[in-house]
């Protein structure tokens, strides 16, 4: 029986178990379907360091070329490197990665030319259904003349482009530890920040886990999980580094720790980068998702920008950025989006902004980051519930009619209080989970509000 694609085609990408769900037959069908549905006849295909990546990329190319498309195989790529190719060459893109998922997984992210995302609402559902029909026996699309497959290495072009966006050549010397988590940061960091392909920058890089290994022998490549930052934090303090950077498996997200090993929140990084971008482009819009710190829109407005609040998720941020021509966008999850990067997310460019900010002053990063921290966050707390929407309704009813609060339903429910505190409770798109984020001016007040809400959610 053919795999059922509806089980592992998600809102924005494909993510499943290799062998039982993801096979070369599935990827060949998706390649053919992607060409048939989008009508795009030029594609770039890349993959991360997982063992199944090369075979899946080749299978996608077979299906796509049989349907009449020309395919350039880019080989090893970070996801943002694939976006670069799609933007620079004006081709559609297919990136084989499961990001931070464990070794037994792989996946596929696709985009249109100029790195425009393909999600369920923008073609992925039709691609899924067409590929399912092919797997169930419908003849695959076959052009009178099949397309061609060529290979090209884009690493040098990507590195050169990134260097042109943020000039690090004049910063003070910095010592940094970079934890690539055995992911694609081990491929791109030496090219962009090191001297592998371009002139050396005033950076001394102490590499952690740069060996590409899709089994993740040291720790999962998910720096959003605090336990996966422990090695980086220890190494930063051990060698006396100025800061540390951690990339996820496909290197489209970046996390930062200061010289004391303390994590710098993605909200603070969002505010920092927004400040830098607004200095170059005053008055521009800057996007932030609704669970970023309240400090983010405050600082954007103070620096002369227009804060734009979005739902959580890259498709919502990218759509809002394109609509408003926003200069930058940030999410709590460590995704950072740039107008001069086709509104796409790139961990590398965010890291370069942090390095530039740190290198333009003698102050430690902890001092810089403190300027952008005004409230105490709870972090995201997940709770399994049988009826997520019923619980949200219960919370909404509890706060309905209160004069000192404001509520909105942009993404789950957000309740804002006159003292500046707020919380958001929203359902997961894929699991029976509720995700709670709380923010208050001090730790004790945040904990009281958090615990009161969790009692309701978990009863």
TrEMBL record:
<dbReference type="InterPro" id="IPR005844">
    <property type="entry name" value="A-D-PHexomutase_a/b/a-I"/>
</dbReference>
<feature type="domain" description="Alpha-D-phosphohexomutase C-terminal">
    <location>
        <begin position="380"/>
        <end position="454"/>
    </location>
</feature>
<dbReference type="InterPro" id="IPR036900">
    <property type="entry name" value="A-D-PHexomutase_C_sf"/>
</dbReference>
<keyword id="KW-0413">Isomerase</keyword>
<keyword id="KW-0460">Magnesium</keyword>
<dbReference type="Pfam" id="PF02879">
    <property type="entry name" value="PGM_PMM_II"/>
</dbReference>
<dbReference type="InterPro" id="IPR005843">
    <property type="entry name" value="A-D-PHexomutase_C"/>
</dbReference>
<dbReference type="Pfam" id="PF02878">
    <property type="entry name" value="PGM_PMM_I"/>
</dbReference>
<dbReference type="Pfam" id="PF00408">
    <property type="entry name" value="PGM_PMM_IV"/>
</dbReference>
<dbReference type="GO" id="GO:0016868">
    <property type="term" value="F:intramolecular phosphotransferase activity"/>
</dbReference>
<dbReference type="GO" id="GO:0005975">
    <property type="term" value="P:carbohydrate metabolic process"/>
</dbReference>
<dbReference type="InterPro" id="IPR016055">
    <property type="entry name" value="A-D-PHexomutase_a/b/a-I/II/III"/>
</dbReference>
<keyword id="KW-0597">Phosphoprotein</keyword>
<feature type="domain" description="Alpha-D-phosphohexomutase alpha/beta/alpha">
    <location>
        <begin position="267"/>
        <end position="372"/>
    </location>
</feature>
<keyword id="KW-0479">Metal-binding</keyword>
<feature type="domain" description="Alpha-D-phosphohexomutase alpha/beta/alpha">
    <location>
        <begin position="157"/>
        <end position="261"/>
    </location>
</feature>
<comment type="similarity">
    <text>Belongs to the phosphohexose mutase family.</text>
</comment>
<protein>
    <submittedName>
        <fullName>Phosphomannomutase</fullName>
    </submittedName>
</protein>
<dbReference type="InterPro" id="IPR005846">
    <property type="entry name" value="A-D-PHexomutase_a/b/a-III"/>
</dbReference>
<dbReference type="InterPro" id="IPR005841">
    <property type="entry name" value="Alpha-D-phosphohexomutase_SF"/>
</dbReference>
<dbReference type="GO" id="GO:0046872">
    <property type="term" value="F:metal ion binding"/>
</dbReference>
<dbReference type="InterPro" id="IPR005845">
    <property type="entry name" value="A-D-PHexomutase_a/b/a-II"/>
</dbReference>
<feature type="domain" description="Alpha-D-phosphohexomutase alpha/beta/alpha">
    <location>
        <begin position="9"/>
        <end position="130"/>
    </location>
</feature>
<dbReference type="Pfam" id="PF02880">
    <property type="entry name" value="PGM_PMM_III"/>
</dbReference>
